[in-house]
Amino acid sequence: GVKKNIGVLPGDGIGPEVTREAVKVLNAIAEKHGHTFEYNYGDVGAIAIDKTGNPLPDETLAVCEASDAFLFGAIGHPKYDNDPSAKVRPEQGLLKLRKSLGLFANVRPVTAYDSLLHMSPLKTERVRGADFVVYRELTGGIYFGEKGRTEDGAYDNCTYSNYEIDRIAHLAFQAAQNRNKKLMLVDKANVLETSRLWRERVTAIAKEYPDVALEAMFVDNAAMQMIQNPKQFDVILTENMFGDIISDEASVIGGSLGLLPSASVGEKSAMFEPIHGSYPQGAGKNIANPLATILSAAMMLDHLGLIDEAIEVRQAVNASLRNGMVTEDLTKENPVGTDRVGDFIANHI
Amino acid sequence: GVKKNIGVLPGDGIGPEVTREAVKVLNAIAEKHGHTFEYNYGDVGAIAIDKTGNPLPDETLAVCEASDAFLFGAIGHPKYDNDPSAKVRPEQGLLKLRKSLGLFANVRPVTAYDSLLHMSPLKTERVRGADFVVYRELTGGIYFGEKGRTEDGAYDNCTYSNYEIDRIAHLAFQAAQNRNKKLMLVDKANVLETSRLWRERVTAIAKEYPDVALEAMFVDNAAMQMIQNPKQFDVILTENMFGDIISDEASVIGGSLGLLPSASVGEKSAMFEPIHGSYPQGAGKNIANPLATILSAAMMLDHLGLIDEAIEVRQAVNASLRNGMVTEDLTKENPVGTDRVGDFIANHI
Ligand SMILES: CC(C)[C@H](C(=O)O)[C@@H](O)C(=O)O
Ligand SMILES: CC(C)[C@H](C(=O)O)[C@@H](O)C(=O)O
After folding, report:
1. Closest by alpha carbon to A339, among A302, A272, A293?
2. Which residues of chain A make contact with B126, given a CB cutoff of 8 A?
3. How many CB atoms lie within 10 A of CB B323?
4. Alpha-carbon gap, residue A296 to A72, rounded angstroms
5. Is a pLDDT exceeding 80 seen at residue B82?
6. What's residue B337's pLDDT?
């Protein structure tokens, strides 16, 4: 067995409940395979603001830095919803985490599960079989450029360096090599200079991956194609802001946000996080769907090199879907609680 | 009758065919109501580059400036598709037109026609009855900010002034007053300073329109909601880049791009344009759907104060849909040619 140091940042709302189930599943994996997973916890988001005034306290950052990988639940509380210009906000914890740890690649697999297609807003034939992954650049672009006010206005600067583009491009090409060998760059190269740079760099890097077919699509067209024909995509590569929009759009086509995991990988550590938010109305009721977080833990196992273990987790998740051992967001007949979904999956390991 | 000076910029691909039918319908309106419409033509896009080396020749700009309003077909040719960084491109004609004429508000109504819902990628019950309009700011933001290269990277600056925000906000509030009195501001105020300024300004202006309910949504969430529940929207207000993405996404939910018109209104003139592109593969075949351009002409009539005439055009379009007098993109049984759709509608005026 191996020894790994795993950070856990439960965060707000349903975050603590869903991360608890993911830890339960990780414990089952550790026990079966003789691994030692040591967990260290940290506060982030609204709960961290409440306790310390800071959405990302230094101790939490230290937990993440010391970890081989960490789980992140969710952040956000309704009391912050109405004032996006407030000085201290939960999201700042997330943005600072990404930047401080250099988590430059946000990886979001989108899988249309057959058993959930009846819940998709898209017609079944359009979405059945859709299976792709979005590589979103996460620490550059307009999110982190200089921003401020002028006398009669405001500005946000978007910058990208060659280096920032190249490093995520390589990851995306490698992902395509392990999948269906298609890479779609999403940009706005007919208008933006940064997008033209993305095109140039990614086109040049493509020469190193002759087995991958590179195409490019303008972001407005990509937003249409995502609905018209999501099956055309294999790996999507894009910059920070476009990735935010396109990956959120993509996340609803399969029928449930409750199953979508993500990874944010970088220089110093790697973070694993469900796509869904903190869903405060559902907190404390044992109704939150833990599958996205459990599947994020599976991505973490992959990242830690525990490939077989990751497969076992995914198989156990599929068993819970097949057996209808799911929360109320996925079924009207006999839903079970958050904890029982986790128990079922842990017992199936 | 009134006398109006109408510019016509047919552009590329199917542009000339669809604008021809719109002019046919405008002529029928003029004849019936005793109006005098004088048409002046100008080249724009790839055809203008071919003829003059310039995607927007000065003569074309003069045609637009002298017009009370003008029709725009479409621009784009496949020979420009593979090099978005080419120095001369058709899109530049469009961007320069918007900026030179101060066409600051792009207005895109989205209507889900019952008879086309079988063609929508969305499940019928999700989209039936959807009816909203997007107000996209069109001459500011990252499209027109300073852009360039540095030694090892590139940048695009996004700026907005109070004035740029306020003038389109007023138009959007007024549109909401004439509709269902709901305005949704789409921004990314949790990250961008320009978005925070949009929130502040729009929230302040809302006080002048107490009958309109203002809400705000982050752009990533809006991209999801557009698919999950498009019926929730009435008027959407957003900045240039977000508007590009969200309005293109919105344009496919109804089942056909071929019916969606747009207006770009401004200080010196107003432009009316179908949402669809130049569709070069369909050019010269008499198969292009002219309805979006004819409905754009209806928006032009509204703009010129000819409200009853605009209604007549829309009624005639509905008659063509009811009678199956439509092009092959809308029906498999007995489609008719572009020219016959225009004839039918002109005869119904
Ligand atoms: C909360 C917000 C800052 C964040 C983002 O825009 O990156 C979120 O939308 C996401 O995609 O993780
Ligand atoms: C052609 C392009 C510059 C343009 C834009 O992005 O504004 C187009 O996508 C549109 O929406 O009219």
Report:
1. A293
2. 121
3. 10
4. 9
5. no
6. 97
Query: Taking the model in full, what pTM does it have?
Result: 0.96
Alpha carbons A21 and B288: distance in angstroms, whole number? 55
Crossing angle, helix B291-303 and helix B15-33, to 10 degrees? Answer: 50
CA angle B26, B48, A194 (to 5 degrees): 110
Which amino acid is located at B339 in the chain?
A: D
Residue for token digits 């993440």? A64
Q: To the nearest whole number, what is the mean pLDDT of chain A?
A: 96
Residues A67-78 have a mean pLDDT of 96
CB A225 within 8 Å of CB A199: no
Interval B173-219: pLDDT, tens = 999 999 999 999 999 999 999 999 999 999 999 999 999 999 999 99
End-to-end alpha carbon distance in chain B: 16
Length of chain A counted residue by residue: 349
For A84-101, how does the pLDDT look when each residue is reduced to its tens digit (9 = 90+)?
Answer: 778 899 999 999 999 999
Q: Over range B53-77, report the average pLDDT.
A: 96
Ligand 2 site, residue B91, Cβ cutoff 6 A: yes
- How would you list the strands of the sheet with B153-161, edge to edge? A147-150, A153-161, B153-161, B147-150
Q: How far is the CA of B176 from the centre of ligand 1 (A)?
A: 29
Instruction: Please give the angle made by the CA atoms of A299, A300 and A302, to the nearest 5 degrees.
Output: 65
Q: Which atom of ligand 1 is nearest to the CA of A244?
A: 11
Domains delineated in chain B: 1-103+266-349 (3.40.718.10), 107-147+158-255 (3.40.718.10)
Give the residue numbers of A annotated as catalytic, written as ranges.
Answer: 143, 188, 220, 244, 248
Q: Which of B97, B137, B139, B244 to mutate to test the pocket of ligand 2 (most atoms within 8 A of CB)?
A: B244
Q: Is the pLDDT of residue B133 over 80?
A: yes
> Mutating which of A249, A256, A276 best tests the B interface, going by the most B Cβ atoms within 10 A?
A249
Residue A249 CA: distances (Å) to CA of A75, A99, A223, B109, B343: 20, 24, 8, 21, 40
Q: What is the per-residue pLDDT for A30?
A: 98
Cβ atoms within 10 Å of B161's Cβ, excluding its own: 18
Q: Are the CB atoms for B137 and B165 separated by under 8 Å?
A: yes
Give the closest of B122, B196, B241 to A122, CB-based. Answer: B122
Contact A192 B145 (CB under 8 A): no
Alpha carbon nearest to ligand 1 atom 7, residue: A244
Q: Are the CB atoms for A211 and A230 separated by under 8 Å?
A: no
A98 annotated to bind ligand: yes
Q: What is the largest distance, in Å, between two alpha-carbon atoms of chain A?
A: 63
CA–CA distances in Å: residue A45 to residues A63, A96, A276, B173:
15, 11, 15, 35
Q: What is the pLDDT of residue B86?
A: 82
CB B58 within 8 A of CB B42: no
Poorest-pLDDT segment among A19-28, A59-68, A198-207, B252-261: B252-261
HEC string for B103-118: CCEEEEEEECCHHHHH
Strand ordering across the sheet containing A213-218: A36-41, A3-11, A69-74, A270-274, A261-265, A105-111, A131-137, A235-238, A182-187, A213-218
pLDDT of A185: 98
